[in-house]
């Protein structure tokens, strides 16, 4: 089976998740109230609101990221503002910076990660020190920005930025009680962004 990420809108009133080629936006207080975004040509894998709530970035199994406004007139028709192909394989996770201008995406195939400006697609540095598929990423929401990625190589890799620049790698904290290494399913900064 595949994992399904559940993500909330910045105001905590809506839940986003993917199923098939669709992104679902469901009202938490009234779950019968839902919007469907169906512009992905292949299976959608992740969808996240920008911190301002103005945009949603969603990724799919082809490495394509679509950026669109979730609050359009027609609940079943959404206009895509930007389309970028950022990874050669499936997008497993993505994260917005606190200013809603920069995005980091991770996944499988080729470079495994990319960082870019949401409105131009301009690349913001190179991710180095990554050898296998990445499953998760996060950007510290306040300045100075920091990025963390984690995946199947049993380590968390930290970067300054975006723009990204390698800072350090840590694989010591990802062992089971029996001493065996495990892949890293999620990497996140603490809510107050003080801890890496």
What can you see in these coordinates?
With 196 residues, the chain is mainly beta. It is 0% helix and 41% strand. The chain has a four-stranded antiparallel sheet, with no helix packed on it. The protein has a four-stranded antiparallel sheet with strand order 5-6-7-8, with no helix packed on it. It is globular and about 45 Å long. The mean pLDDT is 86.
Helix proportion range = under 10%
- Anisotropy-based shape: globular
Helix count equals 0
Report the span from N to C terminus: 30 Å
Sheet with most strands: 4 strands, antiparallel
Round the Cα radius of gyration to an integer and report it. Answer: 16 Å
Q: Whole-number average pLDDT?
A: 86
Instruction: Please provide the count of β strands.
Output: 15
Note the topology.
Blueprint: E1 7-8, E2 14-19, E3 22-27, E4 34-37, E5 44-49, E6 56-60, E7 64-68, E8 80-85, E9 91-96, E10 102-107, E11 113-117, E12 134-139, E13 146-151, E14 156-160, E15 165-170
Antiparallel strand pairs: 1-2, 2-3, 3-4, 5-6, 6-7, 7-8, 9-10, 10-11, 12-13, 13-14, 14-15
Summarize the structure.
By secondary structure, this protein is an all-beta fold. The chain is 0% helix and 41% strand.
List keywords for this structure.
196 residues, mainly beta, four-stranded antiparallel β-sheet, 15 strands, 0% helix, 41% strand
């Amino acid at each position: 089976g595949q994992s399904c990420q559940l993500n909330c809108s910045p105001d905590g009133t809506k839940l986003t998740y993917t199923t098939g080629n669709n992104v679902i936006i469901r009202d938490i207080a009234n779950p019968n109230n839902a919007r469907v975004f169906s512009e992905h040509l292949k299976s959608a894998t992740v969808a996240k609101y920008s911190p301002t709530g103005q945009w949603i970035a969603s990724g799919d199994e082809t490495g394509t990221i679509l950026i669109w406004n979730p609050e359009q007139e027609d609940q079943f028709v959404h206009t895509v503002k930007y389309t970028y192909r950022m990874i050669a394989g499936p997008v497993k996770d993505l994260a917005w910076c606190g200013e809603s201008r920069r995005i980091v995406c991770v996944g499988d195939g080729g470079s495994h990660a990319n960082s870019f400006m949401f409105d131009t697609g301009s690349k913001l540095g190179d991710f180095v020190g990554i050898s296998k598929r990445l499953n998760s990423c996060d950007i510290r929401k306040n300045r100075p920005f920091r990025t963390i990625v984690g995946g199947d190589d049993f380590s968390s890799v930290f970067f300054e930025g975006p723009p990204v620049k390698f800072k350090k790698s840590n694989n010591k904290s990802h062992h089971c009680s029996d001493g065996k290494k495990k892949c890293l399913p999620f990497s996140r900064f603490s809510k107050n962004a003080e801890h890496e």
